[in-house]
Prior knowledge:
There is one protein chain. This protein has 2 domains: 8-38; 51-180, ABC-type transport auxiliary lipoprotein component (Rossmann fold, 3-Layer(aba) Sandwich), CATH 3.40.50. The chain is an alpha/beta fold and 182 residues long. It has 3 helices and 6 strands, in the order αββαββββα. The radius of gyration is 27 Å and the shape is flat. It is 36% helix and 31% strand.
Amino acid sequence: MLLEPRSASHLIGECVRNAREYRSLALTLMLATACFPYGFAGGGLPSNIRTIAILPFDNETPATTLQRELLERMRREIEGRLGLRSAPESRADAVVRGRILRYDVDIPIGYSADPAQANTARRRLQIVVDIEIVELSSGRALWSRKALSADGEYDERSEFEGRRQAVEKIVSDVIAGAQSQW
């Protein structure tokens, strides 16, 4: 059986028709999927958790401003990333509470290349916390972690930058933990 050779213009016309059909199909699929409602109510937490109270952590360290920094970052990120509204503890569906156990600072991690100088170029700090998210109506822990630690690296005399990194990591770990539970 011999096939007839097709002309180039015939092949181009067929490709254009196929492209139109694929575009039409893609447009139909996009419109159809746009009609389905979707959303993330409360991140990975149960659907009845819509409001949350984030309490100041008990601070067992000498770093007095750490408690405020952790509280502010936790409130901002949990509300934004989990889609929850802030509420006083008496009206909240859940509460976040914890303790700052340890704040180790000035751990040398990098040294100057000049042997005449004994100064370190980079330092590390570590924050360790116990934390839990509790559903208030049942008293059930939705998520908890003991001795959750986070590190931050910084240049000498820039401790604030290392602390910012460590606080950011703790908050991200809490949010990831809350989302993965359900």
